[in-house]
Amino acid sequence: MASAALIGATGMVVCVLDVIRDFNRLILGQGSQILSHLCSSPPYTQITFLARRNHPAVFSHEEKVKAFIEADTSKWASQIKDLRPPPDIFFSAFATTRAAAGGFDKQYQVEHDLHLELAKAAKEAGIKVYVLISAQGANKQAMFGYPKMKGEIEEGIKAIGFDHTVIIRPGLIAGTREESRPAEAAIRKIAAAAGHVNAGLLKDFWAQDADEIGQAAVKAGLQALQGQAADKDWLIAGKDIVRLARTDLKE
Question: Cα(173)–Cα(194) distance, rounded to whole angstroms?
């Protein structure tokens, strides 16, 4: 049995709500199936989620989910530190875009600085396993701002020293999104077509369904807690996300 805490419970990879369009509401485009899979997974007996607004899953799983709704993100770290008993696993699936944040500097402040602040609070609370939804191409040595930022987030969280850090790097997130640039929408259609022809050969290595990313995160967290992670810092990407999503979850 395991308990979990989740940041990023109102977007595409936690139980799909509307796409978040402004800086005052965190975009969780890679987190919105996680909460639904936590709720439906018997090994997870207690779930805590922290957000600026409530989520429908809370009302349908009141016996299992405890919500902390706080509009001021500067208060989130203290709330995480005060969790008693501390959850076993911390899931982080929030992000924003440069346009929504109002520039890259503000995007960096939301994604990098808040991520590390909350990760440090989770470590101080006594949480053992940290699961981060990152992005394909993340690399702190990258020339471009976005992959460099993602790589710096990964390295910063690993340096905090959890018993296990799980990093999931999805490629293109396949599926329908309410907000998407035309080029992204076109690529998603290509991914969907490739999946219909032969997902294993033509799609899984570069595009993964949001539902499978959520499943993989939930299963990876539990495996890490049970000592079944491939390494202390476990990187899961591409086809490995899909492969893990399709394995049986053991209690």
Answer: 14
